[in-house]
Amino acid sequence: MSEMDELDAQAESENAEESAPDNFYIDILTGNKESVSAKKLLIQKVLRQLIEGYGFDRDDLEVNYNPQIQGHGRKRIDIAIFRPETEHTNDNLQRIIVCRNQKKRDKLRSLAEAEADLRELKELMELLSAATLGMWTSGQEEFLFQVERGRFEVRPKPLGVWPAPGEATSDVDLTGGVIQVAADAEGLEDALLRAHRYINRNLGLDHKDTFKQLAILLLAKIYDETRLSSERKFWIRGDEPFTEEGQQTIHQRITECIRGAKLWQSNLLTRGWDLTLEPHETARVVIELARYSLRETQPRYRTGAFRAIARSVMDGREGRYPTPLNVAEMAVRMLDPKAEERIMDCSSGTGTFLAMTAVHIFKQYLAELGTRPEEARPEQILQAQNYTAEWSASSALGCDIDPFLVVTSRMNLLFTTGNPGRIFRLDARTFPDGDLDGVEAARSATPLESMDVVLVNPWFSNQHPVNDPTILERYALGHNWERDGGGGYRNTGNLNAGGVPPEVLFLERAMQWVKPGTGRVGILLPDGLLGNPAQEYVRWWILRHCQVLASVDLPVEPFKVTVKEYGFTPALPSLLVLRRRSHAELLNYEHPEYKVFMAVVDRAGVDSRGSLLFQRAPDGEELIFDEQVIERVREGGEVHIRRVTRRTRRIHDELPLVVEKFVEFLETGEVSQ
Q1: 350 to each of 430, 457, 570, how far by Cα in Å?
Q2: Which among 405, 508, 475, 398 is positioned nearest to 442, based on CA atoms?
Q3: Cα separation of 66 and 100, whole Å?
C-alpha cells in the first residue's frame, strides 16, 4: 500500500463514526455543514482555541494542507499556520499541528512515553525548513516543539509554551517568557483538566488533595498578575520544564510566588494548604497555566473552568452537589443584584452563585462603559475586572459548614474576580450562635436582616431530616403546624419530632437574612415541597411571609449531569424568587392579590447524559443561524477586534428566555407569547 493509500485509509477510519443526517458540525473556517468524526471534531476544537484563545487570524490557517515535499510522497498537515498575509505555500509555513484522536487515557504521558506518536510531527518539522514551531494534540494531551536547525542537524526541541501570533520565536528563551494570552472558555477548562488529571492520576492524589495543589498554584498565578511585569515569576522559558535544572528553577520561582501570595491573601487558605509537589511535578502543572493571562480572560470563562476542577470536591452526602452553571446564571439574572447591594449564599458549596453574581456585576460595569464582554477592548476588560474585584471584597458574602468548601468558595471568587470575597465557616442553621471559627467575624459582617439578596441551593434530603431540637427551636418551620379553621395554619408550639427536611430550614433562614420589605431571595427547592399535601403549611408560610415574584419549574437533566458522579437521582427542582414582606405588611393578615410569574422549562441545554441539545425546526431538523461574532486578532502585543459572520448551531436552552420574559413581566405585569 502506498503512503497516500495509507493516509486515505487512516482518514476513512477516523471518519467512520456515525454520521446521521443531523449528526454534523459547522466548520469554523468555511461555514460549511460537515459530517462528524472524532478527528474532525478535534481539529475544530483546536481551531477554536487558535482563533478565540491565541488570537490567530483565520485567514492564516488551513486544514489538511498538502505540502508536496519532493521525494517524500504526499503528506498531510492537519492544521497549518502560515505567516500573516502570505500565500499558503511551504515557504510561508510557520507552524504545524498534528491532531490525533485517541481513547481516553488514565494518565498523561511523558515525552519519552509519547515518542512513537510524535514521530510524524517531528518528521514534518524536519522536512519543512520554514516551519519553526509544532504541536501534537489529542485533546487530552498536548506537546509543543521548536525546531533548532544547525549546519548538520535539525532537532525539534520540546517547549513549555508557544509564542503568541506575531511574537518572535526567540522570545521563548527570554526572562519573563512569551506574551500571555487571554484564554477562551474551552482552552482554559482543558488546561485545568490536564493539570488535574496529572496530579490525580499520574501522582495518585485523591480529589481533595489534587484540588489543594491546584488551588495553591492558582493562587500564586493570580497574585503574580497583580505585580509589575518586571517582578513576575509565574512563567517558563523555552525547554525549562524538560531539564532537571530548569525544573528546579521553575519550582524556586513558584515557591517564592506562593510565599508572596499567602501574605497577599492571608485569610484565604487554612492550615494544611501547602505545595507538596516535587520540582518536576510543579513544572508539569505550570506548563498548563503559564500561557494565560487571567486578568484578560472573561470571568464567565474562568468560573466555568474552575467548576471543572472543583465539582469533585463535594461528596454529595446529605443531598449536596454543585448548582448547574446555567441555572445559577438564570437565578442571578432574575434577581438582578446591583453593585451597591450585599449578596449572600448561606450554603455556598463551591461558590457557584457568588461567582455567577460576579460575572453579572462585570457585565453591568461594561454596560455602563457602553460595551459588552465580547466587544470590550483589553483596557476596558481590565478596568471591569478591577471594579468586580472591589465589589467582591465588599459585597460578596457567604458561608458553609464544611471548612474545605469554605476555601473552595473563596478560591472560586478569587479565580473569577481577583478577590476571594468574605466566606465564613459557620453553620447557617444555628447562626448567630455556634463555635466554628467563622462565627465571630460573621456576626458583625453578616447579621440577620442585613442582606439585599440571598441566593442559595440548599441541601435536598428526605433521608437526612434535621431533628436536633437545638436547631429546630430556632425556626417557626421547625415546629408542627395545624389548620386554624380559617383556611390557614397555626404553629402548635411543639417541635417536629420526626424532623424537618434541611431545605425547609434554609428557606426560613434565607428569609431571615434579607432586609424586611426589600430583601430578595432566590432559592432552589424540590418540587415535592411545592406540591406535597403534607407540606402545605410550608407553602402557606411562604405566602404569608413573602411576595412570590416567580416560580420556575426546571428540567431535571442539568441536575442529573451534576449528580451522576455521586450515584444520585436528583429531586425535580424549581426556582422560587421571593421578596420578604416588611414588618408592617405582616401586621395585615390578608394581603392584596397580585400576579406571579410562572414558567415551565422543558430544555436547558443538555440531555441526561450531558450531551448538548441544539435548536430544531418543527420537523426535527437542526437549525443553522448566521451570527455576528467578535474575533480578537493578535499581532505580538497588539490585539485588533474583527467582526465576522459565522454559521452556527444554537444550544436549545430556554433559561435565557425565562429571564427575558421575567424582565418583561416586571416592567409590564404581562408576558407576551
Answers
A1: 21, 11, 18
A2: 398
A3: 17
Cβ–Cβ under 8 Å, residues 308 and 634: no
Render 507-552 in DSSP notation, one character per residue. Answer: HHHHHHHBPTTT-EEEEEEEHHHHH-GGGHHHHHHHHHHEEEEEEE
C-alpha dist (Å) from residue 224 to 84, 231, 295, 300, 461: 32, 8, 11, 21, 42
Give the model confidence (pLDDT) of 285-322 as tens digits. Answer: 999 999 999 999 999 999 999 999 998 787 665 557 78
Whether 466 contacts 500, CB under 8 Å: yes
Query: Which pLDDT does position 52 carry in this prediction?
Result: 94
b/e string for 284-311 if b means 16 or more Cβ within 10 A? bbbbbbbbbebbbbbbbbbbbbbbebbb
Under DSSP, is residue 579 helix (H, G, I), strand (E, B) or coil? strand
Distance CA 56, CA 207 (A): 35
Compute and round to an integer the Cα radius of gyration of the chain: 27
The Cα 557–Cα 512 span in angstroms is 31
Evaluate whether 499 touches 462 at the Cβ level (below 8 Å). no
Amino acid in the structure at residue 300: R
pLDDT of residue 424: 98
User: pTM value?
Assistant: 0.93
Q: Residue 79 in 3-state DSSP?
A: strand
3-state secondary structure of 290: helix
Residue 16 clears pLDDT 50, i.e. is over it: no
H-helix segments, 92-184: 115-127
SS (H, E, C) 6-21: HHHHHHHHHCCCCCCC
Q: How confident is the model at residue 21 (pLDDT cuts 50, 70, 90)?
A: very low
The conformation of residue 166, written as its DSSP 8-state character, comes to T
- Cell digits of residue 652: 436549545
Which H or E run includes 344? strand 343-345
Which ranges of 37-114 would DSSP assign to H, the alpha helix? 38-48
Range with the poorest average pLDDT among 19-28, 294-303, 454-463, 620-629: 19-28
Q: How many CB atoms lie within 10 A of CB 151?
A: 4
What are the pLDDT digits (tens) for 148-188? 887 777 889 999 999 999 999 989 999 999 999 999 999 99
Name the DSSP class of 230: G
499-508 average pLDDT score: 95
Quick one: which of 323, 313, 598 has its CA closest to 460?
A: 323
What SS3 state is found at 390? helix
Reference 195, options 160, 244, 239, 226; nearest CA is: 160
Report whether 423 contacts 269 (CB < 8 A).
no
What values do phi and psi take at 448, rounded to 5?
-60, 150
- Map grid coordinates 525549562 to a residue: 240
Sign of CA dihedral 92, 238, 102, 129: positive
The torsion of the CA quartet 276, 279, 285, 288, rounded to 10 degrees, works out to 150
Phi/psi region, residue 179 (left: phi>0; alpha: psi -120 to 50; beta: rest), is: beta
Q: What is the pLDDT of residue 315?
A: 63
Amino acid at position 409, single letter: S
DSSP class per residue in 430-487: TTT---STTHHHHHHHS-TT-BSEEEE-----SSS-B--HHHHTT-GGGEEEEE-SSS
CB-based contacts of 57: which residues, under 8 Å, 6+ apart? 84, 165, 633
- 84-116 pLDDT per residue, tens: 999 999 999 999 999 998 888 889 999 999 999
